[in-house]
Amino acid sequence: MVIKWMQTGEGDASSPPPKVRAAEYVRMSTEHQKYSTDNQSDAIRLYAERRGYEIVRTYADEGKSGLNLGGRRGLQGLLHDVENGNADFEALIVYDVSRWGRFQDPDEAATYELRCRRAGVHVHYCAEQFENDGSIGSSIIKTVKRAMAGEYSRELSVKVFAGQANLIRLGYRQGGAPGYGLRRMLVDQVGSSKGLLERGEQKSIATDRVILVPGPDAEIDTVRDIYRMFIEEGRSEREIAEVLNARGGVTDWDRPWTRGAVHQLLINEKYIGNNVWGRTSFKLKSAHVQNPPEDWVRSDGAFDGIIDNDLFDRAQAIIRARSDRLTDERMLEILQRILESQGYLSGLIIDEAEDCPSSSAFRSRFGSLLRAYALVGFSPDHDYRYLETNRKLRAMYPAIVRTVLHRIADSGGSVLQDQATDLLTINQEFTASVVIVRCFQTATGSLRWKLRLDTALRPDVTVAVRMDSANEHAHDYYLLPRLDMHEAVLRLAEYNGLSLDAYRFETLDSFYRMAARTALRSAA
User: Fold this and answer.
1) 193 DSSP β-pair partners
2) Is-contact 378 345, C-beta < 8 A?
3) Which of 150, 253, 313, 456 is the most exposed place for a label (fewest CB within 10 A)?
4) Which residues contact 524 (CB under 8 A, 6 or more apart)?
């Protein structure tokens, strides 16, 4: 006989058990569509439904490499919440082991799971064929999977490098500005020209390629004139820059000529038609390293040069002679003098210095710039000049905000300023935050800006004042709506593509028009 016991009230067997609260973590870099965050989330929610979990929180990193933790706000937020008692869930569901990351050290991914587990959050993998139950079998499989994920990235890096190197040898350009006197030409898969790419433009079809072609005649004449003044007239790079500036000329970045700009034009092989790539390496998100010349990837005579090989070789001989006649001690004395006068060292600073061997000469003589720096007691990791710049910008900030307040009032709008946070409430309709963004130069002289959005105040619009290269005056402005900004930190170059530069303005007139009030006629 089978007796069926009847239960009522809270103990009624017909009532489903309460679901366990869980979070999901999804990550996608640029891999196959099966790893899209939407597909991961769909699989996670099916798993949760079958297992009795309720997804209450989502942590996502979209378009983020899995090689390190940097820039992965989703994973950083997850770890912060579970370790600081902010997690309102008991379980975490991840698509598979590789979603933690494809780290070169397989133990790194294991530490993130361990940190969750120690905080009382159990981790589940919905697409794996094993239960993450702490058994010996699951531990062995996870270790293998983590190692396989790292190996996948390593193999992919090798394949990508080989593909890029092959394109270089075929004469195609792999990124970067063309340089003064040159232009980027877009060609299709059979080599037919499709038109010049303007500054900031990129190819949109995978099979298209980019080559370098001679630029306008006026720029070509200037390049040849620079070589003539350097070789035949014996003028220094500084003197040549002064001549070009006196003529009213500017570089390809619309800036005045400097010693460094002239020097780079004199030493770059693209002016004789050589395609050279791989001077530095940044593989698998590791540190940048300078590669020896024998490891560079090159294709000589890949495109039409605008300088004769003989002329280029004569210029290199003059540049080499500067350091050939100097002893190691004398070169280090010169480097020490530059350090004392500038307070800092970089390849650009060295190339801008008068009566000094080029940065490449120091690199060749001492094996690397870092070793030369060390010999004069300089560590490039400690650059505190930005502190003075930051103090100067903080002093400028109140005046900039006052100008914004006055211009809004002049436009007919109303604005309230929070004295504690400087958050602006405009027309009682939206909030705005004014941010000054410091400009800095990379080792190659490119300008960069790092903008941190205020994730605590969460203004509706961030008014970013991007400073010029000297951090003296406003260069331009970005009006960034919170709804369209998905990163807490934006790293801006001079040209950033439509996704960011659509919000760029030369003045703040557009912002003031947003605050303007317009009188409407009353309905009859």
Assistant:
1) 187
2) yes
3) 456
4) none
pLDDT confidence of residue 57: 93
CA distances from 490 to 55, 301, 383, 450, 508 (A): 30, 39, 22, 6, 20
Q: What is the pTM of this model?
A: 0.54
**Phi, psi (deg, nearest 5) at residue 152:** -60, -45
Write out pLDDT tens, residues 428-482: 999 999 999 999 887 666 788 999 888 778 899 999 999 998 898 999 999 999 9
pLDDT digits (tens, 9 = 90+) for 159-188: 777 788 888 888 888 877 899 999 999 999
- The answer to whether 433 touches 424, Cβ cutoff 8 Å, is yes
CB 369 within 8 A of CB 451: no
C-alpha–C-alpha distance, residues 137 and 127, integer Å: 17
With bands split at pLDDT 50, 70 and 90, how would you rate the model's confidence at 425?
A: very high
* 449 SS3 class: strand
Q: Do the Cβ atoms of 493 and 520 come closer than 8 Å?
A: no
At 249-269, the pLDDT tens digits run 999 888 899 988 899 899 999
The two counts, helices (H) then strands (E), for the chain are 15, 20
Q: Which of 420, 446, 519 is nearest to 255 (CA)?
A: 446
Tell me how far apart the alpha carbons of residues 453 and 108 are, in angstroms, rounded to a whole number. 29
